[in-house]
Amino acid sequence: MLRSGRGDVAELTASMLRAWPLPMPVDGDKHDRGTVLVIGGSPETPGAALLAGVAAMRAGAGRLQLLTCASAADGMALAVPEALVSGLATTATGGLDLPRAEDRVGALAAGADAVVIGPGLVDPEAIAALLAMVFAGVRTDTVVVIDAQAIGCFSGLDQEVGEPRARLVLTPNHGEASAYVSEVDEPAVPGSHAATVAAMSGAVVTMHGDVATSDGRRWTGGPGSLGLGTSGSGDVLAGLIGGLGARCRESAQAACWGTYLHGAAGERLARRIGPIGYLARELADEAPCVLAELAP
Predict the structure, then answer these.
(1) pTM of the complete model
(2) In-domain check, residue 178
């Protein structure tokens, strides 16, 4: 396993990833490639969970489970027939109605090798409760990817998180990173914002192509393109990391591979379609091709 050393900065390149290969099961059993649970979506933004779930499968996860709002569950089950889809009732504010859902959330989390929580969720109070349920249910070796509004809610949790925090991956944009870092729009040394958020949160952090861990490891300079700044792109990134986390069960490796896949997929689309105008859903479709190119 190739790692950036404590305090070192390494380049996020194809050759580096080839030296840090993902596990590949010999017999192709889906259980060997892990189960991903995606918790997300609301009546107004149901597609975010779908984007993350499809991306997780495109990254090679063996099984996908989606937990979303009841109003979107039937459509999502038809759109992603490969997934087990569970629907929860929603509150008047668009959040998931959780008092009756704790057992279901806990059971799904306990059986997952990776959990992605946040894409499309809108009610901060419900998100905080969901995070607590997930942390109470997951195994200590489960990779937990925290995305979108869940990042801000996570910053207010403490005792509920449990250990080890290094199994967690945060995927903030500039606005979401403001829960940890002030003046995030100011010029900075590449990767420094990711490193600051990682040190403060105890999690692995990927932010605009840079990856950092709380123990000082950093990877920067991965691929990317202007068109990655599009609606749904972050949901795809979170799903890619979740799918890879289910495969390797290692948060830093999943974050590095997922960040590279996301950026390289954008570069491929930019060459074929144009620098802007490609869709987030198309990023996930490129992931298997990038994975094949990275095969040792």
Answers:
(1) 0.91
(2) no
